[in-house]
Amino acid sequence: MSPAIELDGATRTYPGGVTALCDVSLQIYPGELMAIVGPSGSGKSTMLHLLGTLDRPTTGSVRVHGRDTGELSDRQVSALRARRIGFVFQRFHLTAGVPARDVVADGLLYAGVPLRQRRLRAERTLTGLGLGHRLRHRPHELSGGERQRVAIARAIVGAPSIVLADEPTGNLDTRSGDDVMDLLAGLNRTGTAIVVITHNPVLAARLPRRVELVDGRIVSDTRQSVPGGVR
Ligand code: ADP
Description:
The protein is an alpha/beta fold. Helices cover 32% and strands 26% of the residues. It is built from seven helices and ten strands. The strands form two sheets. It has a six-stranded mixed beta sheet, sandwiched between helices. It has a four-stranded antiparallel beta sheet with strand order 2-1-4-5, with helices on one face. A hairpin with a 2-residue loop joins strand 4 and strand 5. Helix 3 packs across helix 4 and helix 5 runs parallel beside helix 6. The chain is globular and about 45 Å long. The structure holds adenosine-5'-diphosphate. The site of adenosine-5'-diphosphate (ADP) has 12 residues, from helix 1.
């Protein structure tokens, strides 16, 4: 099986000279469920940005389903990202005043799907995540857990093969956080690769694979069976 996303000797040096990621190689396979852990400043966000093709490495390569993104134009990379990768953020990133259905429908904007279809798929996805009764609610009318579920709906409405989540439970109480992790685990069982950045050791311990970063380098990459882990 070939990787869904692959970093090969990826280094990212920011203007000013900070090397946030140093010669990192990592393969993420279809259907994996993994955590990226490490202290603050260790390069986790930088790695997620490279994996998500939101940023390019200074040297080294990023391949998405075998395609070397270094050989693609920004426009081609955007198209590849829209088709393959979904994002979930700690602060949800929902536009104020926009109803849940439209937030999620916008997740298909760059996939070239017509508006009617976008709305229909958004409604189906929200309903599938238990938010069928919240389609017209705006972000401020939703709880934190519901907002994150809307954000997850937006990430997965285009049926990506990989979802990248940056501290997705960081702003939630334990119960809502567990619900969000259960949703992501359920999504993973349907074959979507899920990568979660987390500071939470309990959460990381429940995932089958854990990659640890220190000072921009991978210091461990462990796989474990988690029979009592995420449901
Ligand atoms: P983490 O997510 O683990 O906290 P980051 O990837 O955000 O780590 O940051 C790694 C290092 O790169 C830190 O030293 C940080 O200050 C630096 N850094 C991150 N983003 C930028 C940027 N846009 N410009 C300059 N330095 C940055």
